[in-house]
Structure formats: structure tokens, C-alpha cells
Predict the structure of TniQ domain-containing protein.
Amino acid sequence: MNESFPVGHFDRWNHVSAFECEGNMFRISPFDAGTGRVECLSSFAIRYAESMAVSFIDFYRCFIFPVLPHESTNVTRVTIPSGTVIDGITKTALDWTRALEKVTSVKDLSACTLLPFAGVVAARRLVTASRRWCPLCLEEMAGRERGAVFEPLVWKLEEVKFCSRHKLPLVSKCPKCQKGGSILSLPMRV
């Protein structure tokens, strides 16, 4: 499901430009890079917004949307595509990867998507349309220093039904609020 917001409606962040953040004062990296449990791009984008102490919607409107390629120069609404295309093998995934690399100065964010598998596997029905979690993994992450919780890319794969670490089925309801949700919706944190 796409969410639309009027262009220029930036609330408290309308005074901040992407240039002001190029000093990388918000420097974070994807968790578990280079492993089978690398953080997915949508999770990284959400955590990055949190590190800036802004909502994901404001982060998207002020920083990501302005650097995304646009089909039309007369854009009146800001639309957030579903996470299935952001974490998958699509042009949108490539556009978001490039935009986030530019905004965050973090290189090789394509490894947080399935883009490296383009041309190797079929993109159709590869990624789930809803979020799924391993409750024990979430507990372990929350118990770590700083309690940073993230969503591994492997949890986005439609064919993956169980956590490889705990052998438990992935659940589609948040263990805390008991709600399900799409990838980039409100609220986005587990």
C-alpha cells in the first residue's frame, strides 16, 4: 500500500537541507553486512531516520524523495512505494539504494536488497508484501547494547517461513502490539 503526502509539507524539518547532513553526523551502517542476515534496506532507512530523531515520513520527504528520479517534473504528492519493491529486484529498489547512498554516504547498500541477484532469480513473488519477525531474534536484539532492533533481508523472502537461528516460524504480528503491517507504514518500528 502506498501512502501519499503533499509535497512541501515538511513540518519541523522544512529548514534542514540534505547538504546540512553531508557531514555524516548521523553515520550508521547496516547491521550484519556481508552475512546471510544483512539488514534490509527498508529497515536501514527507518533506523537512519530514528538516528536523526525524525519520523520516517519527514526523513523521506526531506531527504530521500528529493534525490529520487521522478517521471514528471510536476510532482504534487510524495508517494512511498511498498517495501516489496524497495528490498527486492526492481528499478525502485535501485533508485532507493542510490538515493540512500547519496543521503547517508554509506556505500554498497545494494547488498541490503536482492539487487545482487537480478538476472539470477525471478523477481516475481520473491519478497513478502508484509513484515515478518522471529520473536526470539527481536528479544535478543533488544537485549543488546543500545537495543537496536533491525529486520534481516532474509525475513523478506517469500519462501523463508522459519528463523534459521531459532527454528521458529516467522510471525506477521508484532509481538509488542499484536498488529501486522506493510513494510513502510505507520508505525514502522517493531
Observations:
- The longest helix spans residues 91-104.
- Strands lie at 3-6, 77-80.
- Confidence is low (pLDDT under 50) at residues 1-24.
